[in-house]
From TrEMBL:
One MF annotation (Gene Ontology) recorded for this entry: metal ion binding
E.C. designation(s): 2.7.8.1
Family note: Belongs to the CDP-alcohol phosphatidyltransferase class-I family.
Catalytic activity: CDP-ethanolamine + a 1,2-diacyl-sn-glycerol = a 1,2-diacyl-sn-glycero-3-phosphoethanolamine + CMP + H(+); 1-O-alkyl-2-acyl-sn-glycerol + CDP-ethanolamine = a 1-O-alkyl-2-acyl-sn-glycero-3-phosphoethanolamine + CMP + H(+)
Gene Ontology, cellular component aspect: endoplasmic reticulum membrane; Golgi apparatus
Lineage top rank: taxon: Eukaryota
Name under which the protein is recorded: Ethanolaminephosphotransferase 1
Membrane topology: Multi-pass membrane protein
KW Metal-binding (keyword) present: yes
Pfam families: CDP-OH_P_transf
Location of this chain's protein in the cell: Endoplasmic reticulum membrane
Pathway: Lipid metabolism; Phospholipid metabolism; phosphatidylethanolamine biosynthesis; phosphatidylethanolamine from ethanolamine: step 3/3
Amino acid sequence: SQYSAVDTNPLSVYIMQPIWNKIIKIVPLWIAPNLLTFCGFVMILVNYFLISFYDWDYTASGTSPGLVPTWVWLFSAFTTFCAYALDSIDGKHARRTQSSSPLGELFDHGLDSWATSIFVLSFFSVCSRDNGKTGVSVYTMYIYLSIVLFNFMCSHWEKYNTGVLFLPWGYDISQVVLIAAYLLTGAVGVEVWQKPFLFGYYITDALVILLIG
C-alpha cells in the first residue's frame, strides 16, 4: 500500500516544510533515499558517542561546569539539525526519484525508533544527573524516555490500524527545542540549566511540561 502521512503542525507546515523543499532541490538525483536516511542516523550516533566520551555518567554538566568543551554543544546542534533535515527530506527524495518502497519506509521508521531513544539520552547530558542541588534524577530521566517512546509507539500503532501516520506535533517541536538547547548551552554554558529562570523554576521544569503536553 502507498505510504500516507498527515502533518498538521503549524511549525512544520509553515516553517520547516518550505525549508526542506528548498534543501531537497540541491540533493543529486543519483543519491539513494536510504543513503540519506542512514547518514542522518549516523549523525545522531556520532553526536551520542561524542557526548558520551566527555560525559559517560551524566554528571559533567552538574558537577564540573566547563568539563564538556563548548564546541561539543555547538557540534551537537549541527548534527541534530542535519539528522532532522535528512530525516525530513529522505521521503521527499524517494517520491522525487520515484523510488519509494515498503522497505524504505521500514528502514526509515526502524532507524527512527532507535533515534527516538538516542536523542533523549544525548540531551540528558545538557541538564545533568541530580547532584542534590540541580539536575534531573535517573528516575525522572527514565520517565522522560518512556513518554517519548510511548508516543512513538502509539503513532505507529495508529498507523498500523488506520493506514495513515498522523505525525505528532512533538516531533518538529522537540527537534527545534533540542537544537536551541544545544546552541544556548554552547553560547552561555551549562550554568543556564542550573539556575532558576522564572518563579524558582528551572528550564528543565518547563521542558517537562512541554514534553507531557
